[in-house]
Amino acid sequence: MQKLRFLPSIITALTALTLNSCSTTTAEQYEATALTSYTWLVLYANNLTSQPQPRTETFANTSMLNRNGLKPAGAVVGPDDRGLWWPTLPARRSVDEVEQRKRPQEEIGKPELVKNVKYKLTYGVSNLQKTLPTNYDVYWQVVKAYHQRTPLKLTLGVNDNSVEKAEPVSK
């Protein structure tokens, strides 16, 4: 019986969290961006196979900002299977450059080329503009709606710190 005494409090707290965690807004002006990047990384560790947190060194990075699905100036690769454009590959670092960053007793991992994408959505609310992180699904929905200037219903994440969903609204 003692455990049941807390049940109403738990239900109230979960209900409040659910109600406060997400909100929606309608936007008629918006812009979706996807920052595509390539980065050369090398891992260093005293023992690469057993050390849980090897040290990571970044050697070179190139990036390109995609806006609303349009081809950016200087785009070399794309669009890929997700409609994204990519920059040129950064120059691979020489063996000497990789070894110069090695500390005594460390092993050097194999240089790795990492691809990354960061999605953001900028939209107007009243007379203000907000820019929030988002995901590929929202980015692509905005790209499709952008060319028709279709208003979007945006579902925001916890504390309105991200955009989780975008749905076209009939005019």
Question: Would you kindly provide a written description of the structure presented here, covering whatever features stand out?
Answer:
By secondary structure, the chain is α+β, with helices and mostly antiparallel strands. Helix content is about 20%, strand content about 40%. The strands form two sheets. Strands 2, 3, 4, 5 and 6 form a five-stranded antiparallel sheet that branches. Strands 1-7-8 form a three-stranded antiparallel sheet. The N and C termini lie far apart (about 55 Å).
Write the layout of secondary structure elements.
Elements: H1 7-21, E1 23-27, E2 30-45, E3 55-67, H2 95-100, E4 107-108, E5 112-125, E6 128-133, H3 136-146, E7 152-156, E8 163-168
Antiparallel strand pairs: 1-7, 2-3, 2-4, 2-5, 5-6, 7-8
Summarize this structure as a short list of keywords or feature phrases.
171 residues, alpha+beta, 3-stranded antiparallel sheet, elongated
Give the radius of gyration: 23 Å
Count of individual beta strands = 8
What are the secondary-structure elements, in order, as H or E? HEEEHEEEHEE
Largest sheet: 5 strands, antiparallel
Give the DSSP E fraction (strand runs of 2 or more residues).
35-45%
Helix content: 10-25%
Shape: elongated
- Unreliable stretches (pLDDT < 50, length at least 5) are 13-19
pLDDT average, as an integer? 89
End-to-end Cα distance, whole Å, is 55 Å
Figure out the total of helices.
Answer: 3
- Secondary-structure-based class equals alpha+beta
